[in-house]
Specification:
The protein is an alpha/beta fold. 40% of the residues lie in helices and 10% in strands. The protein has one domain: Rossmann fold (3-Layer(aba) Sandwich), CATH 3.40.50.
């Protein structure tokens, strides 16, 4: 399947650029907040991976499901979440998207189909598979997408989920964000073969997107898988080759430079936001002034989100046990 400009509106393409810039500027601000002590612990940024995140998320429908991982500020943003509640969640405020109880590693926004994420490697994959099963049982036409990194590519629950999805023809896409490193471990030293090729063992399609820095490449591959799933033709495995520009987590000091300087320089030259901006200009979709205006608007949006996070209250201690169970139980003295 080939998706060209004629199939996509100007509004859609500019929204893709807007969401990529949102992720970039949100994560850049989060990085500064960690270094200034404004966020307890650390955060994992998606800087450099914006095309892979947004290309996949915008291939989904507004009501489709998505699950993330430990590097997942960008996923709800890519799905359309507003920034202020996400930023407030990073600092544990009551106005956060999870009422301040989740933090950076556990963002969820059911209003856009973001079912959640976790720092446990590969743990959200079965959740996405379960959501796909519910879609099939309810026949509601919704598709589910599970993001996971190359470090999760060897987790058993991935293959249990793929096997189940393959047997039952579930409408789910398993998307591997292969940024070449699991923390500091090069993927090629712990993973045999091509991850996308593993789909054959479950009799489902497997696609490897070599240039995951290009929005159109990712969008096209994922859209084909989404359409296939929505037609009732079952799951797909997609491996997207991308790169994180920052360290595994902000402030991490390993005492060794495990990434080759030339490699990093080459990838930094493949900035997904710059690539897509140049594409929009070359194709006559937008002018420099229009694209500059989008960037300026997002800068203001991120600043407003930061101010919102700082002025919001912390949760009241009395709410500590709220939302633990669908049917709260009475606590006896």
């Amino acid at each position: 399947m080939s998706i060209g400009l004629s199939n996509l509106s100007k509004e859609f393409l500019l929204e893709a650029q807007r969401r990529m810039i949102r992720i970039r500027l949100f994560d850049e601000r989060a990085s500064k907040m960690v270094k200034r002590g404004q966020i307890p612990g650390t955060v994992h940024t998606s800087i450099g991976q914006e095309a892979q995140v947004v290309g996949a998320c915008m291939a989904l429908g507004d009501s489709d499901y998505m699950t993330g991982n430990h590097r997942s500020h960008g996923h709800p943003i890519g799905k359309g979440s507003p920034l202020a509640p996400l930023m407030a969640e990073l600092v544990g405020k009551a106005t956060g998207i999870c009422k301040g109880k989740g933090g950076s590693l556990h963002l969820a926004d059911f209003s856009v189909g973001s079912l959640g994420e976790s720092g446990i490697v590969g743990s959200s994959i079965p959740i996405a598979t379960g959501a796909a099963l519910s879609s099939k049982v309810l026949n509601n036409g919704k598709v589910s997408l599970a993001f996971f990194g190359d470090g999760a590519a060897n987790q058993g629950n991935l293959y249990e989920s793929m096997n189940m999805a393959g047997i039952w023809d579930l409408p789910v896409i398993f998307l591997c964000e292969n940024n070449l490193y699991a923390l500091s471990t090069p993927a090629h030293t712990v993973t045999s073969g091509v991850i996308a090729d593993r789909a054959a063992g479950f009799n489902i399609p497997g696609v490897r997107v070599e240039n995951g820095q290009d929005f159109m490449n990712v969008f096209t591959a994922v859209k084909e898988a989404v359409d296939r799933a929505r037609r009732g033709e079952g799951p797909s495995l997609i491996e997207v080759v991308t790169y994180r520009f920052n360290e595994h987590s902000e402030g991490l000091r390993l005492g060794v430079d495990y990434r080759d300087a030339k490699e990093k320089e080459e990838w930094l030259a493949k900035d997904p936001i710059v690539i897509f901006r140049n594409y929009l200009l070359a194709e006559g979709v937008a002018s420099e002034a229009e694209l500059d205006a989008i960037h300026a608007a997002v800068e203001a949006e991120v600043e407003d989100a930061f101010e919102f996070s700082q002025s919001s209250p912390f949760p009241d201690p009395s709410t500590a046990f709220d939302d633990l169970y669908t049917e709260p139980f009475e606590v006896y003295a």
